C-alpha cells in the first residue's frame, strides 16, 4: 500500500518553498522506489512550522517542520516514510503540538487534516451535517438557532449575525443575495484566507445555510485580488460542490436551489466596508453608501442582502451541526463562541490561534508567540488591523472580549495581533496610519480625504521637532474632526492608532526628532 | 523595446462578449482584459462602454478608482512589495528601500529594460512570515535583501535563456 504524505498548498507554505519541497519528496520517493500518495492538504495554521509535512502511519500522523527542500533527503534517510521521529525536524503527532493542543478549534477543526477541495474528505470529517439539519428546518428556525448561538459578525463591527439574517428573512423580494465579505484587508490577518485555503467547503456550506435561512438563491464571495491561492482553491471547491449536487438546482434532492460565484476585488481596502463592497460588486467605484437604507433591506442591485464576513459564515455549519448551545457555551460576556486570533509581525511563532473569548492579550502572547523573532523585547501591539489601537505593556492584561477592548478605546476587530519590538518608532507608525488613510479613502468625506493628508503633514512637523506642542494640539483637533465628520470607520477610526501611538509612546517624539536630525546632517 | 504582452482588440472584444451578460459584469470584464493584456488598454474602454451601455467616462472612473487596474503595459514581471504593518514589524521598510535601489525605480514604475514593474501592496495574508512580496501569482515570504537579489538574478537569468 502506498504511503500518504501531506504537504499543504496554502499561501504561507508556498511562500516558504512548499513546491520545491514537493518536488524533492517526489524525486526521493521515486529514486528509492517508495510508493507514495501525495495529498495537498490545508495548513493547520502553525505558520512558523511551515512547510510542515505529515506522514500517515498506523498510529496516526507524524509531522516534520519547518522543512526545506534541502532537508528532504536526510528526512527520508531518517525514516520519514515509516513516520520515525529521529530527525531534528520531527514534531511527532501534530495534534499534540502544544500550540495546537491548547486551542479550541470549532471553526478550524478540519484545517490541515483534509484535502480542502475533496467532498469525500469533508463529509468524512462532519462536513455538510449542518446543511443536512438545516434542510429539515424552516428559514425562521435556522435564523433562531443562529440568534441563540450569540454569533456576532467577525468582520469588525461585531453585529449579531442572527438579527441581520432576521431582517433579510423578513423582507419580501423576488431576489435576495448572500454576499461573503472576503476582502480581508487588515494587515496581520489571515483567518479568512485560511478558511478558504484549508476548508473552503465549510464556507460554501455556511453560505448555502444562510441562503436557506433568509430565502436567497444566489451567493457571491467578494475575494480580494491579493489572494491568488485562495481564489484557485475556492474555485475548485465550488466546482466540486456543484458536481456533487450541493450547489445549483435541487440541493441534495431537497428542491432548494443555491448558486455561488467568486468575484475578485481590485486592491482597495475600502471595499471591505460593506456598502463600498456592494458598489464594487455592481461594477462601480467603491464609494461608501449612506446608511440607511441598510444593505439587509436594500443591498446588492437594490435587493435585500446578507453581507457577512468569511468567519461569520464559516461558524454557521458548526452551529447547525452541533446546536447553538455548543457554540454559545464558549466565550465570555456578550462575546460568545471562539475567535481565531492571528499572531503576526515580529514574533517567533506566528500563526492562527482559535480560542474562546476571555483570556488576556498577555496570556495569548505568553502561551503562543514564543517571543519576538528579533529577540528584542516586545513594545507595542496593534490589535484589530490598521484601524486598531497600538497597545503598550500596561494594557496587555485586557481580556480578549469586544466590550473589554472597547472600554480601553481599542478594538478586537477581525482578531489580528501585530507585535512590534522595541526598535519601533511609534511616530513613524502614526504617520503610516494617516498615510494609509490618504491612500485608501474613498474620497466621499472631506475630513477623511483631506484631513488625513493634513495629518501626515502635521505628524511630519512633530517628528521634525517643529512646534511640537502646538502641532500635537492641532493633530488632536484634526482627529476629532475626522471622528465626527466621517461617514465610515476608515475616517472615523484612523485616529485610533494615531492617538494611541502618541498617548502611550510620547517618548518617541524626541527620539524621532533626534533620529531625523542625524539623517539630515548625514545628507 | 517592444511590448512583451501580445493582445489584439479582437481578443479583448471576445472577453467582453463572453462576460457582458453577467450581473455586475464590469469587474469580471476588467479582470479578464487585464489577465489577457497585462493592463487595460485605452482602446478597450469604448468597447466596454458599448457593451454595458455606459459612458466611457464611467468606465474610466472605475478603472482609475482601483489600485489593481493599470492603463499602461507592465514589465515582464509584476513585483509587489507589502508595505503593511505586520511586514513593517519584520523589516519591510529596509526591504522596500533595498528593492527600489536595486531596481532603480519607485512604486508605479517599470525598469527601463522592462523586466520589472514595481507596485506597493497592503498585505498579502502572509503576515506571520513576512516581509512578503508577490511576483506574478507567487507570494514569497521571509524576504531579506539578499534573498531578493537572488530572486532577481534567477528571474532575469531565466528570461535571458528564453530569449537566446
Ligand atoms: C474601512 C473598512 C474596512 C472593512 N474591511 C472589512 C473586511 O476586509 N472584511 C470584513 O469582513 N469586514 C470588513 N469591514 C466591515 C464590514 O463593513 C461589515 O461590517 C462586515 O462585512 C459585516 O459582516 P459581519 O457582520 O459578518 O462582520 C470593514 C469596514 C470598514 C469601515
Ligand atoms: S470616511 Fe473616508 S472612506 Fe469612509 S466614506 Fe468617508 S471618505 Fe469614504
Ligand atoms: S502585512 Fe505583509 S503580508 Fe500581511
In short:
The complex is a heterodimer of chains A (523) and B (164). By secondary structure, chain A is of the alpha/beta class. Chain A is built from 22 helices and 16 strands.
What does this 3D model show about the protein?
The complex is a heterodimer of chains A (523) and B (164). Chain A is an alpha/beta fold. Chain A folds into four domains: 3-101, Glutaredoxin (3-Layer(aba) Sandwich), CATH 3.40.30; 119-327, Rossmann fold (3-Layer(aba) Sandwich); 331-421, Ubiquitin-like (UB roll) (Roll); 426-522, de novo design (two linked rop proteins) (Up-down Bundle). Chain A is built from 22 helices and 16 strands. In chain A, the strands form four sheets. In chain A, strands 2-1-3-4-5 form a five-stranded mixed sheet, covered by helices on one side. In chain A, strand 14 and strand 15 (390-392) form a beta hairpin. The longest helix of chain A is centred in the last third of the chain and has 18 residues, at 446-463. The radius of gyration of chain A is 24 Å and the shape is globular. The model of chain A has no long low-confidence stretch (mean pLDDT 97). Chain B has 164 residues and is an alpha+beta fold. Chain B has two domains: 6-65, no CATH class; 77-163, 3-Layer(aba) Sandwich (Glutaredoxin), CATH 3.40.30. A five-stranded mixed sheet of chain B has the order 2-3-1-4-5, with helices on one face. In chain B, strand 4 and strand 5 form a beta hairpin. Chains A and B meet through helix 1, helix 11, strand 12, strand 16 and helix 17 of A and helix 2, helix 4, helix 5 and strand 5 of B. The structure holds flavin mononucleotide, iron/sulfur cluster (SF4) and FE2/S2 (inorganic) cluster. Residues 270, 288, 441-445, 448-449, 486-488, 490-491 of chain A line the site of iron/sulfur cluster.
Amino acid at each position: 500500500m502506498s504511503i500518504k504524505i501531506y504537504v499543504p498548498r496554502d499561501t504561507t507554505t508556498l511562500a516558504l518553498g512548499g513546491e520545491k519541497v514537493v518536488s524533492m519528496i517526489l524525486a526521493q520517493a521515486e529514486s528509492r522506489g517508495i510508493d507514495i500518495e501525495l495529498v495537498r492538504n490545508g495548513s493547520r495554521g502553525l505558520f512558523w512550522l511551515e512547510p510542515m509535512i505529515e506522514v500517515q502511519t498506523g498510529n496516526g500522523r507524524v509531522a516534520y517542520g519547518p522543512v526545506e527542500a534541502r532537508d528532504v533527503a536526510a528526512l527520508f534517510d531518517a525514516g520519514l516514510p515509516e513516520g520515525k521521529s529521529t530527525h531534528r525536524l520531527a514534531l511527532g503527532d501534530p495534534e499534540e503540538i502544544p500550540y495546537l493542543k491548547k486551542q479550541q478549534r470549532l471553526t478550524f477543526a478540519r484545517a490541515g487534516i483534509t484535502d480542502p477541495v475533496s467532498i469525500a474528505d469533508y463529509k468524512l470529517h462532519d462536513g455538510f451535517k449542518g446543511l443536512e439539519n438545516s434542510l429539515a428546518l424552516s428559514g425562521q428556525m435556522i435564523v433562531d438557532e443562529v440568534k441563540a448561538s450569540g454569533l456576532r459578525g467577525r468582520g469588525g463591527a461585531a453585529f449579531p449575525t442572527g438579527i441581520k439574517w432576521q431582517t433579510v428573512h423578513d423582507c419580501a423580494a423576488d431576489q435576495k443575495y448572500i454576499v461573503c465579505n472576503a476582502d480581508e484587508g487588515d494587515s496581520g490577518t489571515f483567518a479568512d484566507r485560511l478558511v478558504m485555503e484549508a476548508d473552503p467547503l465549510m464556507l460554501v456550506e455556511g453560505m448555502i445555510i444562510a441562503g436557506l435561512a433568509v430565502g436567497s438563491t444566489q451567493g457571491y464571495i467578494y475575494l480580494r485580488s491579493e489572494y491568488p491561492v485562495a481564489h484557485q482553491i475556492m474555485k475548485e471547491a465550488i466546482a466540486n460542490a456543484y458536481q456533487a449536487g450541493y450547489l445549483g438546482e435541487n440541493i441534495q434532492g431537497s428542491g432548494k436551489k443555491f448558486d455561488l460565484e467568486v468575484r475578485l476585488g481590485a486592491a482597495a481596502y475600502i471595499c471591505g466596508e460593506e456598502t463600498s463592497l456592494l458598489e464594487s460588486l455592481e461594477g462601480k467605484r467603491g464609494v461608501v453608501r449612506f446608511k440607511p437604507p441598510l444593505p439587509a433591506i436594500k443591498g446588492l442591485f437594490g435587493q435585500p442582502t446578507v453581507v457577512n464576513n468569511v468567519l461569520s459564515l464559516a461558524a454557521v455549519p458548526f452551529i447547525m451541526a452541533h446546536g447553538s448551545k455548543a457554540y454559545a457555551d464558549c466565550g465570555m460576556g456578550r462575546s460568545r463562541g471562539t475567535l481565531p486570533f492571528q499572531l503576526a509581525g515580529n514574533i517567533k511563532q506566528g500563526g492562527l490561534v482559535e480560542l474562546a473569548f476571555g483570556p488576556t492579550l498577555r496570556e495569548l502572547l505568553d502561551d503562543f508567540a514564543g517571543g519576538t523573532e528579533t529577540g528584542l523585547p516586545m513594545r507595542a501591539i496593534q490589535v484589530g488591523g490598521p484601524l486598531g489601537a497600538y497597545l503598550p505593556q500596561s494594557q496587555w492584561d485586557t481580556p480578549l472580549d469586544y466590550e473589554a477592548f472597547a472600554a480601553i478605546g481599542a478594538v478586537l476587530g477581525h482578531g489580528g495581533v501585530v507585535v512590534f519590538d522595541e526598535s519601533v518608532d511609534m511616530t513613524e507608525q502614526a504617520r503610516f496610519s494617516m498615510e494609509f488613510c490618504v491612500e485608501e479613502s474613498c474620497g466621499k468625506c472631506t475630513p477623511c480625504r483631506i484631513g488625513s493628508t493634513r495629518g501626515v503633514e502635521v505628524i511630519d512637523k512633530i517628528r521634525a521637532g517643529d512646534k511640537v506642542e502646538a502641532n500635537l494640539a492641532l493633530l488632536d483637533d484634526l482627529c476629532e474632526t475626522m471622528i465626527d465628520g466621517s461617514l465610515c470607520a476608515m475616517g472615523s477610526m484612523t485616529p485610533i492608532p494615531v492617538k494611541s501611538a502618541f498617548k502611550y509612546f510620547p517618548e518617541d517624539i524626541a527620539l524621532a526628532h533626534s533620529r531625523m536630525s542625524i539623517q539630515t546632517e548625514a545628507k | 523595446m517592444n511590448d512583451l504582452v501580445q493582445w489584439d482588440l479582437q481578443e479583448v472584444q471576445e472577453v467582453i462578449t463572453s462576460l457582458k451578460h453577467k450581473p455586475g459584469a464590469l469587474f469580471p470584464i476588467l479582470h479578464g482584459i487585464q489577465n489577457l493584456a497585462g493592463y487595460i488598454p485605452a482602446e478597450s474602454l469604448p468597447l466596454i462602454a458599448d457593451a454595458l451601455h455606459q459612458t466611457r467616462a464611467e468606465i474610466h472612473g472605475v478603472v482609475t478608482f482601483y489600485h489593481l487596474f493599470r492603463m499602461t503595459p507592465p514589465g515582464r514581471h509584476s513585483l509587489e512589495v507589502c508595505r503593511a504593518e505586520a511586514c513593517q514589524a519584520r523589516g519591510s521598510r529596509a526591504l522596500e528601500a533595498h528593492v527600489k535601489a536595486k531596481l532603480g525605480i519607485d512604486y508605479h514604475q517599470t525598469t527601463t529594460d522592462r523586466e520589472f514593474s514595481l507596485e506597493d501592496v497592503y498585505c498579502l495574508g502572509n503576515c506571520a512570515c513576512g516581509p512578503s512580496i508577490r511576483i506574478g501569482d507567487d507570494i514569497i515570504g521571509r524576504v531579506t535583501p539578499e534573498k531578493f537579489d537572488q530572486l532577481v538574478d534567477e528571474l532575469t537569468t531565466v528570461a535571458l535563456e528564453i530569449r537566446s
